[in-house]
């Protein structure tokens, strides 16, 4: 079979598309940056892709709630195509603005399948500001998420103003019970941050940084895995380099963020091949 | 119908915006507000029925998980409510996005007269503030009169049914657009007209302008198109083209320079030509990586065999001074259009910032329009939104506090773009409109924004007139345009592109017409935000987010197809034609008909008298005081001082990693908070080639001598680039001058001659250093008139001139990003080297400033000696010998050693006796001198031999060691321990002054 085809959405203030496509290509996918209107007006069809990525950015300038307007447009113009894409086993990854879009679209957490209703929200950071910082993340081993298989901990940057994960008590309980919480903000030791700033950079309930749907094939997260596709992205890489040189150890030039994409591409190629 | 939708967070949710407001009220005024919540208001002036309104409320504008909303007032329990809304005509991106969303949801286009407006209601509770205090909060924190109006309601005067009422800030067209013909019977009449219409014509230009319109051949040709007297459109065109902003009359002026100490005189004909253009062209001859300089919107240099990088730097001082957020936002979004409009267009890859403002805690008698504290918060946020929402990493920047900037703040913004070397086989940096090409305007629409921006005064605005001179940039619209234009470029559809900035269409079309030999524009085709603009206003409006392009007729359909795909508005407004004329029409009637040759006519050169007195003659001297007994105390004070302390709170708000290109971030070290010398990007993912960038400014040295200031600034930029692993022979520069008025006037500018001499000396240094280090100036900008007139305590007004300021932005390539360095100490046991000579050069230093001294001995640069050292350092880095590298700059060795230590969470033991020095060995001199040409480097012991071998014969010494014990220990020249400070304490001092 050929390469896994991944679609990276562009247009209307989305960004991160170049590096997201690059990360996908690095792990063997064929990645295409596709403008939303190319999907809507029929030039491109979602059905021919196995991975659909809504990446970071400021769609519609984040006005009226981050991700709200893009979600509305996807729902009204591409609702059926998305439903079908999910039903056929496609993978959807929402990063940062994309995560905000997926929760507003209602494909996350989607307890009972895609309903296109909003059950959780990503609201303004408690600190009151946009923040760009690196965080430690702990991966929930119980989660069905296919994107995080084999990962226990990782470090990635967050870059957002509206990343505080919020939901009512019942929804929170259900998320936890289902193992749909995939990533939590943590300390350097991997223990959940328990709300402490800046380890939990936005005040997210239960330190939630990412969730998936019950199938594990739809995944949304605030941190940016595509921003750690190369070892020189890590804030400490010059130190790591010196340490490893002195120990005569060779180091991988990959950043751990690539693993998320690699998992997706593996899963897609296996399920496609099967 | 008009409907007001109110949206708020559910009452049990933490309101982060409200909490920020409470913090700021405390921080700005010292007042307590126990509770603050924000209600967002969306006012629809649109034909929406009840069902539609209800549908958009539920489906779009209310998040059922986190928000509540109503078409009735939501506010109930509060002590005070402050409503803040935009004035008519002020860019309301959220409002237009709301309308776009409604249109999308209802699947019907909205009519031109339908609109949505956003505003906010702040609810304050648990507070003892009285009405006057709440009004102060409204005026000095929440709203800016220039762009916003506000109302204060107490709980008792709040109408539960009406709430804030229905406020629709619609622009009311004043009259039918028209073209005026204006008689100019005498020079005096034209002078008066210039005054009256704010044309700012130079008196020397006036006879030339009149002469043109009186010329018989001109009159004859004009008659043929139905014109006789000059029209308002024509005079406005001339005003724009001849303005200092567009024409750089100051830098192109003639300077009669006289050194009053030596009686040396020199006439410098055109600073731009002699100090910028000529050295750059000389260097370009030698450097094949310099691709395109001195003519386009930005300079172009080669990154690698397949890619070019594009760079420019701008300032946006006056607008930011009036409306900090909007001005800075417009500034960064505006400078981003320069690389977009360079060559056939480039993709933006980085933005940089620099702020010079008055003291944050200023409490003196002068009344600036915005207090420095509020001004700085505003510009920080403006650049944040502009960069972040554009998807461009804001990679690094400067901040300098000085009382001279109370008069006018400085906001520097720089932009870097990337383009392929070839587009469809043609060199990407070239562009040229051909006769027959269509003139297209893409992006935003035209309104009254920015008309006569700089000269407009704030007093003349009423409730229903557009706030013309201050604009609010819209990164969303521009990002869409950016993505669209790159696709159009790659398909080879663009033959010429430039941005609409200062002067609007009059500049973009006017300047590009020269390439094609003429242009004809139908101004009634230009899409407007609202009706009621006069024809000349359409032509000179500086409404943002617009580009002007030349597209061949055969490419039009495809161009428009792409434009529609990206939902960007593009309009054919005319055609280039080889007529030699700038021909403008409105509704088929000619309203301007000017010979292009007229703009190249013999306009008299501006002339300036420049008189220099050396610092000694001006009475500057070295201060007399003994060596302090507590140098550690001084170190703590300096680390905590406003100009050296942590600025993490700024950089943290900027997305500096988007695009996945960051290699060396601005903030580094174990706590990721210490500013590195430069940043490094990897613009082409997958390649190992990097681009290093840095910025430097040192206005305090200019108090002693602007020559030394510019020399030290450039030298430091060079060192900063080398410190991260950049190449010495591929350094490009961008010069930004911000200067007070230099035209002598015995009453209004009595020291004008001195300021002119300062400018001459600064330019001489620019020329000398660029030639010495072989730095071509890829781009640059001069902003004159950094003067403010501030109200004093007794109703008098004081002129406050900003320090002559020179910011240098420098770039270079990095051969292999894997060899990049950061400043922090990496490993205990590593040796610490100081490269370069320390001299008794404390003039203009932070150390002297602590005691309110200026001093005399300003740091001087010896480029020829420095170059040998720099080449060697480059070689050492290429061989990966150092583990860290820091260019020693402001604050001197002590400050930078402290940073190297606490950035690495390691100690340093330094021995001042070992410092290579050419001065009296006073410990404080060695610790705090700001001598140029120095680096602090750490090297592992096993690389010591190699490192020392290559530096043999150069001024360097091992001055200490990296220690496991986390303390900075300094031995004095006598051998005894001078001080020993835990790095945690040093870091705490450095972080202390201000936190987020």
Automatic annotation (TrEMBL), chain A:
GO terms for MF: ATP binding; hydrolase activity; phosphoribosylformylglycinamidine synthase activity
GO term, biological process aspect, one: 'de novo' IMP biosynthetic process
Keyword list, A-Z: ATP-binding, Cytoplasm, Glutamine amidotransferase, Hydrolase, Ligase, Nucleotide-binding, Purine biosynthesis
SMART domains linked to this entry: GATase_5
A cellular component term, taken from the record's GO annotations: cytoplasm
Protein name listed in UniProt: Phosphoribosylformylglycinamidine synthase subunit PurQ
The species this protein was found in: Desulfoglaeba alkanexedens ALDC
TrEMBL record, chain B:
Known catalytic reactions: N(2)-formyl-N(1)-(5-phospho-beta-D-ribosyl)glycinamide + L-glutamine + ATP + H2O = 2-formamido-N(1)-(5-O-phospho-beta-D-ribosyl)acetamidine + L-glutamate + ADP + phosphate + H(+)
GO function terms (MF aspect): ATP binding; magnesium ion binding; phosphoribosylformylglycinamidine synthase activity
The protein's annotated pathway: Purine metabolism; IMP biosynthesis via de novo pathway; 5-amino-1-(5-phospho-D-ribosyl)imidazole from N(2)-formyl-N(1)-(5-phospho-D-ribosyl)glycinamide: step 1/2
Binding sites annotated in the UniProt record for Mg(2+) 1: 314
Annotated positions binding Mg(2+) 2: 338, 499
Enzyme Commission code(s) on record: 6.3.5.3
Positions of the catalytic residues: 245, 316
Record keywords, A-Z: ATP-binding, Cytoplasm, Ligase, Magnesium, Metal-binding, Nucleotide-binding, Purine biosynthesis
Ranges of residues in domain Phosphoribosylformylglycinamidine synthase linker: 190-248
Pfam families listed in its UniProt record: AIRS (PF00586), AIRS_C (PF02769), FGAR-AT_linker (PF18072)
SUPFAM superfamilies found in the cross-reference section: PurM C-terminal domain-like (SSF56042), PurM N-terminal domain-like (SSF55326), PurS-like (SSF82697)
Record domain PurM-like C-terminal: where: 435-584, 828-971
Binding locations of ATP: 735, 780
Domain PurM-like N-terminal: 296-419
Source organism, top-level taxon: Bacteria
GO terms of biological process kind: 'de novo' IMP biosynthetic process
InterPro entries from the UniProt entry: PRibForGlyAmidine_synth_PurL, PurL_linker, PurM-like_C_dom, PurM-like_C_sf, PurM-like_N, PurM-like_N_sf, PurS-like_sf
Binding, substrate: 337, 471, 542-544, 783
A single Gene Ontology CC term: cytoplasm
Function: Part of the phosphoribosylformylglycinamidine synthase complex involved in the purines biosynthetic pathway. Catalyzes the ATP-dependent conversion of formylglycinamide ribonucleotide (FGAR) and glutamine to yield formylglycinamidine ribonucleotide (FGAM) and glutamate. The FGAM synthase complex is composed of three subunits. PurQ produces an ammonia molecule by converting glutamine to glutamate. PurL transfers the ammonia molecule to FGAR to form FGAM in an ATP-dependent manner.
HAMAP family: PurL_2 (MF_00420)
Subunit structure: Monomer. Part of the FGAM synthase complex composed of 1 PurL, 1 PurQ and 2 PurS subunits.
Family as reported in the entry's similarity comment: Belongs to the FGAMS family.
Record-given protein name: Phosphoribosylformylglycinamidine synthase subunit PurL
Organism annotation: Desulfoglaeba alkanexedens ALDC
């Amino acid at each position: 079979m050929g390469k896994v085809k991944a679609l990276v959405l562009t247009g209307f203030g989305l960004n991160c598309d170049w590096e997201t496509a690059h990360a996908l290509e690095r792990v063997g996918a064929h990645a295409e940056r596709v403008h939303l209107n190319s999907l809507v007006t029929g030039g491109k069809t979602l059905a021919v892709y196995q991975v659909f990525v809504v990446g970071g950015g400021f769609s519609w300038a984040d006005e009226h709630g981050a991700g709200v307007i893009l979600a509305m447009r996807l729902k009204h113009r591409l609702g059926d195509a998305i439903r079908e894409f999910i039903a056929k086993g496609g993978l959807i990854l929402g990063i940062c603005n994309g995560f905000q879009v997926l929760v507003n679209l209602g494909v996350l957490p989607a307890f009972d399948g895609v309903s296109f209703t909003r059950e959780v929200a990503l609201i303004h950071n408690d600190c009151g500001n946009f923040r760009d910082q690196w965080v430690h993340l702990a991966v929930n081993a119980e989660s069905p998420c296919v994107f995080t298989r084999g990962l226990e901990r990782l470090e990635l940057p967050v870059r957002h103003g509206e990343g505080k994960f919020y939901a009512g008590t019942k929804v929170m309980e259900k998320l936890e019970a289902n193992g749909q919480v995939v990533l939590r903000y943590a300390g350097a030791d991997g223990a959940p941050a328990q709300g402490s700033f800046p380890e939990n950079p936005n005040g997210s309930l239960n330190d939630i940084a990412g969730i998936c749907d019950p199938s594990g094939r739809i995944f949304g997260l605030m941190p940016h895995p595509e921003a750690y596709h190369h070892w020189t992205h890590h804030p400490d890489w010059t130190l790591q380099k010196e340490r490893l040189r002195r120990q005569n150890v060779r180091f991988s030039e990959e950043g751990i963020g690539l693993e998320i994409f690699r998992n997706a591409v593996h899963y897609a190629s296996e399920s496609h091949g099967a | 119908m008009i409907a007001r939708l109110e949206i708020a967070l559910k009452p049990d949710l933490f309101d982060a915006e409200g909490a920020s407001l409470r913090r700021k009220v405390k921080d700005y005024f010292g007042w307590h507000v126990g509770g603050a919540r924000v209600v967002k208001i969306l006012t629809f002036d649109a034909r929406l029925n009840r069902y539609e309104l209800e549908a958009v409320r539920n489906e779009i504008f209310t998040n059922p998980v986190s928000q509540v909303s109503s078409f009735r007032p939501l506010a109930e329990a509060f002590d005070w409510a402050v409503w803040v809304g935009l004035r008519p005509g002020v860019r309301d991106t959220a409002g237009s996005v709301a309308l776009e969303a409604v249109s999308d949801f209802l699947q019907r286009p909205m009519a031109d007269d339908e609109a949505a407006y956003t505003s906010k209601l702040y609810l304050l509770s648990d507070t003892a503030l009285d009405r006057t205090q709440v009004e102060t909060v409204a005026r000095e924190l929440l709203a800016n009169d220039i762009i916003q109006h506000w109302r204060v309601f107490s709980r008792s005067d709040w109408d539960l049914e009406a709430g804030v009422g229905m406020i629709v800030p619609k622009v009311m067209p004043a009259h039918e657009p028209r073209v005026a013909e204006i008689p100019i019977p005498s020079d005096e009449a034209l002078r008066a007209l210039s005054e009256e219409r704010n044309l700012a014509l130079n008196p020397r230009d006036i006879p030339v302008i009149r002469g043109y319109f009186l010329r018989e051949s001109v009159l004859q040709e004009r008659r043929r198109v139905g014109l006789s007297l000059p029209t308002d459109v024509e005079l406005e065109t001339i005003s724009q083209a001849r303005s200092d902003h567009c024409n750089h009359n100051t830098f192109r002026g003639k300077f009669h320079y006289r050194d009053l100490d030596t009686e040396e005189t020199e006439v410098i004909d055109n600073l731009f030509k002699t100090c910028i253009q000529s050295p750059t062209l000389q260097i370009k001859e030698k450097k094949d990586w310099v691709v395109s300089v001195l003519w386009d919107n930005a300079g172009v240099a080669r990154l690698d065999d397949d890619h070019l990088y594009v760079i420019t730097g701008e300032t946006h001082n006056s607008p930011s001074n009036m409306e900090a957020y909007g001005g800075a936002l417009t500034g960064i979004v505006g400078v981003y259009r320069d690389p977009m409009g360079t060559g056939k267009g480039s993709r933006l890859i980085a933005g940089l910032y620099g702020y010079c403002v008055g003291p944050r805690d200023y409490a003196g008698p002068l009344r600036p329009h915005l207090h420095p504290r509020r001004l700085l918060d505003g510009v920080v946020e403006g650049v944040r939104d502009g960069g972040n929402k554009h998807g461009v990493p804001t990679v690094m920047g400067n901040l300098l506090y000085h009382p001279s900037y109370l008069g006018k703040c400085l906001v520097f913004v720089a932009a870097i773009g990337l383009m392929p070397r070839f587009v469809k086989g043609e060199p990407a940096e070239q562009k040229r409109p051909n006769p027959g090409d269509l003139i297209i305007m893409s992006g935003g629409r035209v309104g009254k924004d920015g008309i006569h921006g700089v000269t407009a005064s704030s007093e003349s605005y009423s409730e229903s007139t557009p706030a013309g001179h201050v604009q609010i940039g819209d990164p969303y619209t521009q990002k869409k345009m950016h993505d669209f234009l790159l696709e159009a470029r790659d398909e080879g559809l663009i033959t010429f592109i430039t941005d609409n900035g200062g002067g609007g269409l009059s500049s973009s079309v006017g300047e590009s017409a020269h390439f094609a030999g003429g242009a004809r524009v139908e101004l009634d085709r230009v899409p407007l935000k609202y009706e009621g603009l006069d024809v000349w206003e359409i032509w000179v409006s500086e409404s943002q987010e617009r580009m002007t392009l030349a597209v061949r007729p055969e490419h039009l359909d495809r161009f428009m197809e792409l434009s529609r795909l990206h939902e960007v508005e593009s309009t054919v407004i005319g055609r280039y034609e080889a007529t030699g004329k700038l021909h403008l029409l409105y509704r088929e009637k000619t309203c301007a008909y000017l010979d292009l040759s007229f703009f190249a006519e013999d306009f008299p050169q501006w002339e300036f008298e420049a008189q220099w007195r050396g610092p000694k003659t001006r009475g500057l001297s070295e201060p007399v005081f003994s060596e302090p007994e507590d140098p550690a105390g001084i170190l703590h004070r300096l680390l905590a001082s406003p100009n050296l302390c942590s600025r993490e709170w700024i950089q943290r708000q900027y997305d500096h990693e988007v695009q996945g290109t960051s290699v060396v971030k601005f903030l580094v070290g174990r706590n990721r908070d210490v500013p590195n010398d430069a940043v490094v990007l990897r613009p082409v993912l997958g390649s190992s080639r990097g681009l290093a960038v840095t910025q430097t400014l040192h206005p305090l040295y200019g108090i002693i001598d602007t020559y030394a200031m510019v020399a030290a600034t450039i030298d430091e930029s060079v060192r900063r680039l080398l410190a991260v692993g950049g190449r010495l022979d591929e350094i490009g520069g961008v010069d930004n001058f911000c200067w007070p008025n230099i035209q002598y006037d015995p009453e209004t500018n009595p020291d004008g001659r001195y300021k002119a001499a300062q400018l001459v000396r600064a330019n001489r240094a620019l020329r000398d250093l660029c030639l010495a280090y072989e730095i071509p100036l890829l781009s640059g900008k001069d902003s004159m008139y950094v003067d403010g007139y501030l109200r004093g305590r007794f109703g008098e007004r004081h002129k406050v001139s900003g320090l002559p300021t020179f910011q240098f932005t420098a770039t270079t390539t990095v051969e292999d990003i894997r060899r990049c360095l950061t400043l922090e100490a990496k490993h205990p046991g590593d040796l610490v080297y100081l490269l370069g000579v320390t001299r008794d050069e404390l003039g203009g230093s932070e150390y002297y400033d602590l005691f309110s001294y200026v001093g005399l001995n300003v740091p001087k640069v010896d480029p020829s000696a420095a170059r040998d050292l720099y080449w060697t350092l480059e070689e050492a880095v290429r061989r990966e010998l150092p583990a860290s590298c820091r260019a020693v700059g402001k604050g001197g060795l002590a400050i930078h050693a402290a940073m190297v230590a606490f950035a690495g969470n390691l100690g340093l033991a330094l021995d001042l006796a070992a410092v290579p020095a050419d001065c009296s060995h006073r410990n404080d001199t060695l610790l705090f001198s700001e001598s140029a040409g120095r680096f602090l480097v750490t090297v592992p012991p096993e690389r010591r031999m190699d490192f020392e071998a290559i530096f043999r014969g150069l001024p360097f010494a091992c001055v200490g060691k990296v220690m496991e014990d986390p303390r900075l220990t300094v031995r004095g020249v006598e051998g005894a321990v001078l001080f020993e400070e835990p790095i945690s304490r040093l870091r705490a001092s450095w972080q202390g002054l201000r936190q987020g």
